[in-house]
Amino acid sequence: MSTSRTPKIGLALGSGASRGWSHIGVLKALNRAGIEPDVIAGTSVGAMIGACYLSGNLDKLEEWVLGATQIDVFKFFEIHLTKSGFVDDERFADFLHDYVIDRETSFADLPSAFATVATDVQAGRETWLTEGNVLESVRASMSLPGLFPTVRINETWLVDGGLVNPVPVSTCRAIGADIVIAVNLNTDLLGKRSRSSPTPKPPEPDGLLGKFKRSAKDYSETLFGTDPDGAPGLFDVVANSINIFQDRITRSRLAGDPADIAISPKLAHIGMLDFHRAAEAIREGEERTERVIDEIKTAASISR
């Protein structure tokens, strides 16, 4: 006697910093079509969006990101390097608690199977987090070296999972998915990003507030902009370097373990730290997902 069952649909949400806002668009399009993932695995920003979705906070996060400015993003960075990164760790943890997932939530509390991917910085091993505190696992998965401090979990120091598995298809299958939808944010990146012309801005006010704003602007441009001779700024160099290795790793991993359905938003024009461009990323995620909805529905209706 043979039995059949509806296959479990898995969603692998890849790394990609600010491009990760497109994951919100992907999930919105899936929900409109009545498709709810049974399993979610996330790397870096994909881990954050996955946890946010499973905790029921996606609308709340979307509202924040659509209203965020460059100044709001700048507030997460400390001018003086502390620990092993620029990001203000306490402020970021507060943000995750307020907009992503409660500090006390464990994996056992989530409504669906979930895993985050991090990297053991000392052993160089890929680490899957499926137990314990979800917020801490998200912080570990997002701990991009040089920007975020390393995170210690179970006596292991962890950093960004994008170093080893940028699109966690293998993780998704391992925790129960039969059919995997992968969201790859690392396509079409290298050599194709163009800078838009600067938008004219009103003059800063005089006085103490004006001086502070000008100082913050100068510091921001030093890090995020270019030198007068056209040399890329610090974070542009970091971002392009990350794009190079993630592109290579992603190609290799997906060649060996391809997804059943791939969603690849075209986001080369959005820089690694262009978090204020959320509307564009979300819209692109929605549009790319809508193109494969029929394919997903067909896969989801197959009995095994």
Features:
304 residues; alpha/beta; 40% helix; 11 helices
Description:
- The chain is α/β, with parallel strands linked by helices and 304 residues long.
- It has eleven helices and ten strands.
- The strands form two sheets. Strands 1, 2, 5, 6, 7, 8, 9 and 10 form an eight-stranded mixed beta sheet that branches. The protein has a two-stranded antiparallel ribbon with strand order 3-4.
- A hairpin with a 5-residue loop joins β5 and β6.
- α1 (22-32) packs across α10 and α2 (45-54) runs antiparallel to α6.
- The longest helix has 23 residues, at 234-256.
- The radius of gyration is 20 Å and the shape is globular.
- The model is unreliable at 193-204, 211-217 and 219-224 (pLDDT under 50).
- Distance between termini? 13 Å
Work out the radius of gyration: 20 Å
The ordered string of helix (H) and strand (E) elements is EHEHHHEEHEEHEEHEHHEHH
Helix content: 40-55%
> Which band does the percent of strand residues land in?
15-25%
Q: What's the total count of β strands?
A: 10
Which overall shape is indicated by the principal axes computed on the Cα atoms? globular
Can you count the helices? 11
**Class inferred from helices and paired strands:** alpha/beta
- Oligomer category: single chain
Q: For the report, how would you describe the main beta sheet?
A: 8 strands, mixed
